[in-house]
Amino acid sequence: MHTVAANAYIAYRSLRGRLAGTIWPPELDPLCALVVRLVWLNGSSQVADDIRAEFALPRSTLSSALRRLEDRGYIRRHANSIDARYVVVALTRKGRTAAPAVTQLINDLERDVRDAAGDDPPRGFDKVATILAAMDEEA
Questions:
Q1: What's the Cα-to-Cα distance from 33 to each of 48, 60, 104, rounded to whole Å?
Q2: What is the pLDDT of residues 59-68, one digit of tens each?
Q3: Could you point out which of 36, 42, 96, 109 has its C-alpha 20 to 30 Å from the C-alpha of 26?
């Protein structure tokens, strides 16, 4: 049995690989896809610090992802109208067009993981990581 840290890494590596191979549009990397999904689920705009907190990301990692999304035309960033210290991330038309497919793909992956984990989250995480590791070895 792997440690919790090892299981977390195994699950991350495997899911990242699956996302990278199946995301539409293909120019979205897994983190960018997750950001698009989160912003979409929150009404097409979100405060950047809330995104960072949701994914427990360092500021520099989120900033890089937001820059990639902005450069590719999926989001725009602007100062919050109430408090300019906060940056708001909003989906562009291109982002809103891509968001439903990205959201569905990630929802399907989450459902598969929940189904594999069962009712016992601590043991379920071990089970999911073991399944993902085995699938990676087969590939």
A1: 15, 17, 11
A2: 999 999 999 9
A3: 42
Question: What is the C-alpha to C-alpha distance for residues 58 and 71, in angstroms, rounded to an integer?
Answer: 20
Record the tokens describing residue 116, joined without a space. 């594999």
**Alpha carbons 14 and 9: distance in angstroms, whole number:** 8
Cβ partners under 8 Å of residue 22, min gap 6 = 105
DSSP string for 11-49: HHHHHHHHHHHH-SSTTS-HHHHHHHHHHHHTTSEEEHH
How remote is the C-alpha of 107 from its chain's centroid?
Answer: 10
In which element (H, E) is residue 96 found? helix 93-117
Contact partners, residue 17, CB within 8 Å, separation at least 6: 136
**pTM of the predicted structure, to 2 decimals:** 0.77
Write down the mean pLDDT value for the chain: 82
Rounded Cα–Cα distance for residues 100 and 89 (Å): 17
Q: Which helix (H) or strand (E) holds 90?
A: strand 87-91
